[in-house]
Input
Amino acid sequence: MDEILNLLQNNARLSSEDIAAMTKKTPAEVDAIIKHLEDEGIILKYSTIINPEKIAETKEKVRAQIEIQVTPEREHGFDALAERIYRFPQVKSLYLMSGGYDFQVIIEGDSLQEVAFFVAKKLSTLNGVKSTKTHFVLKTYKENDVLYVDEKKDRREGVSA
Output
């Protein structure tokens, strides 16, 4: 099962036949394992990763990482507040963190103003939120093991005489 998960994480487009050949299983066995993984909620989604800088006609979204300090709710801890936060459509990722803040949120908006408005009017006003710190993403080099930069470019420095 782990072998099939690793193969699918690296390339979700692999066919059952390809996976079967790589794992010495039959395509029917691979299909059954994948169905089990999906039914158990181990595989949550298949997705395509797009480099927005390569699409000229698409306006790139503004992304921000927000550090949030909160007061956990009695009897619910962090979970109830986390649920209120992850339900916002702007929220792309939400993590409970150790260290100087409690939650890390990744959000997207159409502009800096939209992101700032979301933080000021929606996020920071939630009961239990003590403080927020917003960091705007300027450029993505690598995300989820995917490089966004072209490694084929010659990165050597020129020599001058």
Summary: The chain has five helices and six strands. The beta strands are 62-70, 91-96, 103-109, 129-136, 142-143, 146-147.
